[in-house]
Amino acid sequence: MFKKLVAVATTTALTVAMAVTAFAAVGINDAEQKILDELKAKGVDAQYIAMAEKELSADGVDVTADAAKTAIANIDEAKKIVDEAGIKSVAELKKNTTVLNKVASLVESTGTTVGVKVTVSVKDGKVTYTSPNYSGSAELEKTGVDFSTTAAVVAGLGLSVAGIAVIAKKKDLVNA
């Protein structure tokens, strides 16, 4: 009976130990997600969407529904300006400094609307983007799974099973 009880307890504990906690980029609310979805719908390059996502998921940034509406209106306006100029790529946009300056102004205005200080500088066809949350890389921080809880539980179970085995062995020696 004792062995069955130990087997059931161990199986239950191992099942609980396999519940792994996953961590991911957090902090994107519904309004912020709408902004990201709008950027995707307008065909914005993935690297710029990743930059926007990093900004929106930063601590202290919490976009309201009204701010998101304004931001989306700015995105629509930027798309309209680019389309009216006949621009089809980022390279073409960088060559047309008049349109690029208009879009940069809308980007800065949108940043202000959502609570992020963004500066876009256009000089000789080069665009420099800076903000307090942007470190120069368009890549989001890596996310993944954390097995530390599982490892701790499994280690504790191993020690418990070893302790039970020692006690059971001593009982067998005493009863023999």
Helices, strands, pairings?
Layout: H1 2-17, E1 21-23, H2 30-41, H3 46-56, H4 65-84, H5 90-95, H6 97-114, E2 119-123, E3 126-130, E4 144-146, H7 148-175
Antiparallel strand pairs: 1-4, 2-3
Helix pairs in contact: 1-7, 2-3, 2-4, 4-6
Short description:
The chain has 176 residues and is mostly helical. It is built from seven helices and four strands; from the N terminus they run H-E-H-H-H-H-H-E-E-E-H. The protein is rod-shaped and about 95 Å long.
Number of helical segments with 4 or more residues: 7
Strand pairing plus helix content: what structural class?
Answer: mainly alpha
- Please tell me what the overall shape is: rod-shaped
List unreliable stretches of 5+ residues: 135-143
In percent, how helical is the residue content?
A: 55-70%
Mean of the pLDDT scores? 74
Distance between the termini: 18 Å
What summary fits the major beta sheet? 2 strands, antiparallel
Strand order, main sheet: write it out.
1-4
Strand content: 5-15%
DSSP, total strands: 4
Rg calculated over all Cα atoms: 28 Å
Order of helices and strands: HEHHHHHEEEH
